[in-house]
Every structure is written in structure tokens, then in C-alpha cells.
């Protein structure tokens, strides 16, 4: 029997072998054919394509339930296009929010590094300026942390 092993699909999709098994168990992937003599999974190219899609969705932070919805919409084709678009745009918005939060964290780290750099160089004026910059960051950090 031809087909890809779980190890090959794991390498090519970036999903671990346990994750592939789990995705099969919860109905996101498969059913995956089995080698009749060994019982080992044998993935088709379509299974690999699905695994790669799931890896991208997972990396984007999509929940299992939303991945299920995505897969169901995918199977429905054009009639589910609007639902699929909306699902993806909701996740794009979440990612944009995360990027904005990360930018605040990055700015904070740069401000703190400038503070410590000024201390390292014994520059009291630069230290004071950096400290003020850090202090101005607190409301933005609080907003990001508390959502």
C-alpha cells in the first residue's frame, strides 16, 4: 500500500505525530487509511494538504472548534464562501490585535534597555529621560495586559 507515513506528514506539515493523531481523533483529519498488514497510518496527498492547512490555522491561533467550522465550510465549497471569509477575517483581526500588543511590549523593552544602557554609561540625564519614557508606557501596557 502506498501513502505517506505519519512521520513524513509530520515533517512536511510541521504538526507533531501526536497532534496528527489527535486531529484524526477529533475529526479534523481523515479518516486516514491504514496499511492492512501493519495497521500503520498511510496518508494520501489530500491528507497532507489538509494537515498543512490545519498547521497554518493552528499557527494563527484558531481554536479546534473554529478549525472544525473551517473544514466544514471547506467541504461545502462556494455556498460557504461568505462564512469562510468571515471566520478568517475574525481571526485576522485577532492577529492584528496581538501584533499591536506585541509592538507595545517591544517598545517597552526598548525603553527599559535604554534605561539600563544609560545606567551602564553613568548618564544621569539619559537615565532620567529613559525612566520617563518607561513611566509613560505603563498605561499602554496596562491596556494591553487587561485587554
Give the number of helices.
6
CATH architecture of the largest domain: Orthogonal Bundle
The ordered H/E elements are: HHEEHHHH
Under CATH at level 1, the class of the largest domain stands as Mainly Alpha
CA-based gyration radius: 23 Å
Distance between the termini: 52 Å
* Classification by helices and strands: mainly alpha
What name does CATH use for the topology of the largest domain?
A: Multidrug-efflux Transporter Regulator, Chain: A, Domain 2
Organism: Nocardia aurantia
GO molecular function, one term: DNA-binding transcription factor activity
Pfam families: MerR_1 (PF13411)
Domain HTH merR-type: 3-73
Could you walk me through the main structural features you see in this protein, from its secondary elements to its overall organization?
This protein is an all-alpha fold and 147 residues long. It folds into two domains: 77 residues, Multidrug-efflux Transporter Regulator, Chain: A, Domain 2 (Orthogonal Bundle), CATH 1.10.1660; 56 residues. It has six helices and two strands. A two-stranded antiparallel ribbon has the order 1-2. It is elongated and about 75 Å long. The mean pLDDT is 94.
